Known about the structure:
Mean pLDDT: 91
Shape: globular
Largest sheet: 8 strands, mixed
Strand content: 15-25%
Order of helices and strands: EHEHEEHHEHEHEHEHHH
Strand order of the largest sheet: 3-4-2-5-1-6-7-8
Low-confidence stretches: none
Oligomer: single chain
Amino acid sequence: MKKIAIYGKGGIGKSTTTANLAAALAADGYKVIQIGCDPKADSTMNLLKGVPVQPVMDYYRLHDEEPDFEHIGREGFGGVFCIETGGPTPGLGCAGRGIIATFDLLEELEVFERIRPDVVLYDVLGDVVCGGFAAPIREGYAEEILIVTSGEKMALYAADNISTAVRNFEDRGYAHVRGIVLNRRNVPDEEEKVRSFAEKHGFPICADIPRSDEINYYEDRGMTVIEGDPSLPVSRLYMQLARDLMGDEKPQREGDHE
């Protein structure tokens, strides 16, 4: 089982990247879990025809009993199992604690053992890498980190904070940065700025995603471009990223064992 956390500044396109990557992996036959680790709880909507799944923290607020497996997520496009951690009531509590509570619940309910995914994708807000948001890095939930950034100043600032957080735990054998996803915003000298950042930190650029009207078109319809039109050039870029990340690792079949 491969476990990848996708980090990036809020609004930089990490949820779009994660959902399209999940869809591309599913299209290649992999069993995927996507976990949205953002209080907005919108990471998985484009795998679910635009209909949000109930976040785990919302369930806790509405019910006295502990959630069962049936309450924590829902299957979306390609069989991707979609989970959202959610967050506290606005203005109250810590969003990072919602991530930790959800991760504890996943272990208690043995979700990974039950679904037996090939890939788990964590979509994590990267503006503030506090204890909760850093949990995929420091608690061993993720093995690899993808950092989504554009050439914008604040996006690169967030990317630098994320790389620092990863570096702070690297001597403990936790997650490492696999590379950068350049999600273009067409700012001046964008490629030069991102390549300079990547070279400074020793990270490869794993994918270069152009600004795309097709992505917006299908997101307005509650879909990824992989579902909407897998033949598009931008869809093929996500498919190539999925294949590069998986390498020679083949999808599990019924009866296979890890």
